Amino acid sequence: MSLFSFAATLLTLAALFSYLNARFFRQPAGIMFLLLGVAAAVGVLAGGHVVPGFTNVVRGALVQFDFTEFLMGSVLSFLLFAGSLHVRVDALKAVWRSIAAYSTVGVLLATGLVGVGTYELLHLSGVELPLLPCLLFGALIAPTDPIAVLGILKTTNLDKKIETNLAGESLFNDGFGVVVFATLLELATPGEAPSAGSAALLLLREAGGGLLAGAVLGYAGYRLIRTVDHFQTEVIVTLALVMGGYALCHALGVSGPLAMVVAGLAIGNVSRSEAVSDTTRDYLEKFWEALDEVLNAVLFVLMGLELVVIGFSPFFLGLGVAAAVLALLVRYVALALPTRLVGLSKKLPPRTLAILSWGGLRGGISLALALGLPASMHPEVFVPMTFAVVLFSAVVQGLTLKRLLGWLAPVPA
């Protein structure tokens, strides 16, 4: 199957699933795309028993497409930029301490606790693995997925502080989590083991460099956009900023995801200022919203179809469900400790930690990192476990989040 034919098939499925959801289910789009993608994958696996070779053809096309490269190498840059465009900097300033604590200390705590917990869980199940691969699993599970979280936030009416915490943390902890994962993966690479100091320096270079690169890119985009009033040109400038900026970050060895978040915040807040006309602002926001919707649809359908590649492994899928429960409990602890450390307990609205814990969905980023694990890090164990965590997150957390918010969330002021 050619690349064009495969992409056309994905987009056709996304369009069909979008229609079915809008017409009948009316659930959060990303979650329903994932579930319908899983249903399609089950159909493909079952079809292989009726039409010999059918499953292998589809599996071969999916492997050739390379989900990890598709998301981490290109699509993630667009999705993070589009997501951060709608976040207000002035709202972030009001809760920056909690977002900074949750996105750094919280991610590191969650990585360690999930990693150690998974190590013990596997040991109790008779699977003996070293600690480092389990810590890598913790790193890819620790960050929440902004793509899934932001999609649900569009349909809710949360207290602004909670909404900003959930959106801001999901954007920044995603970028930081990828950096932690990359650092641990380098530690796991055969050869001379880096010292703790060099690992910390690598972490600082990737994270700090990504934030700095995003600020530079955002400022450059701002200077260009404010000097013209031609929305077609400004759309092209933002596309170039995302694609060229992400490629530049990759070449420099700094975090592209963090850079895209910062650049998106800069451009999004400039577009709301007097620097651009109302027409430009309208076209710019609608273009990125439409692109975000299309890429999200294709991404979540593809995530569901990845079950064809992963296959059914009841043992490891069951362990993944147990790991999902562990990750949910750990997330509350990883949020509660930084909250106490920086003295935020009395500054957050009631029940914020419960909402942030349940609203911390896992999605495509976790699955892409798992599918990119080298053979020495036991992907045969952690890929099906990650898929189970993502599916648990979508079904159990995602489909109940809106109702939970109705019970727990304070009425917005």
Automatic annotation (TrEMBL):
InterPro entries: Cation/H_exchanger_CPA1, Cation/H_exchanger_TM, Na+/solute_symporter_sf. Keywords: Antiport, Cell membrane, Ion transport, Membrane, Sodium, Sodium transport, Transmembrane, Transmembrane helix, Transport. Residues 13-405 form the Cation/H+ exchanger transmembrane domain. GO terms for cellular component: plasma membrane. This is Cation/H+ exchanger transmembrane domain-containing protein. It is a multi-pass membrane protein. It comes from Hymenobacter coccineus. Pfam families: Na_H_Exchanger (PF00999). Belongs to the monovalent cation:proton antiporter 1 (CPA1) transporter (TC 2.A.36) family. One of its GO terms (molecular function) is potassium:proton antiporter activity. GO terms for biological process: regulation of intracellular pH; sodium ion import across plasma membrane. Gene3D superfamilies: 1.20.1530.20. The chain crosses the membrane at residues 32-58, 70-87, 99-119, 131-153, 207-225, 237-267, 297-330, 351-375, 381-401.
